[in-house]
Write a structure and sequence with these properties.
The chain is mostly beta strands. 6% of the residues lie in helices and 56% in strands. Strands 1, 2, 4, 5, 6 and 7 form a six-stranded antiparallel sheet that branches. The protein has a two-stranded antiparallel sheet with strand order 3-8.
Length: 111
């Protein structure tokens, strides 16, 4: 595998949303996500999802009303099957580690 510089990748992103796989290990992928705004309510039935914030602030909301606010270098694990949505406070860069075969189920109607 070639060397990858994550900061060079995220600094080159000009879109409001970009999520790409930057590396893989065993049966997991490492995603780099750069975004502004909100991501839809969803869950992963077959994989935990680990967030590592690199830049900006990320809010993770859960359907039970719990909220977790992450700042740079914070790490948080969302367990499989837990319904959540993420919101970027300004431009946010995070790493996400999950199974290669992770399914994402979106909730169409959710308050």
């Amino acid at each position: 595998m070639d060397k990858t510089n994550l900061k060079e990748i995220w600094e080159s992103v000009t879109k409001d949303y970009d999520n790409r796989i930057v590396s893989s290990a065993n049966d997991h992928n490492l995603h780099l996500a750069v975004f502004e705004g909100e991501y839809k309510w969803h869950f992963h039935p077959n994989s935990d999802e680990m967030f590592i914030v690199m830049e900006g602030n990320l809010l993770i909301e859960f359907e039970d009303g719990e909220n977790v606010s992450l700042k740079p270098f914070d790490v948080y694990l969302v367990k499989a099957k837990r319904v959540h949505k993420t919101s970027a406070v300004g431009r946010t860069v995070n790493l996400c580690f999950e199974k290669k075969e992770a399914e994402t189920i979106f909730l169409e109607e959710h308050s």
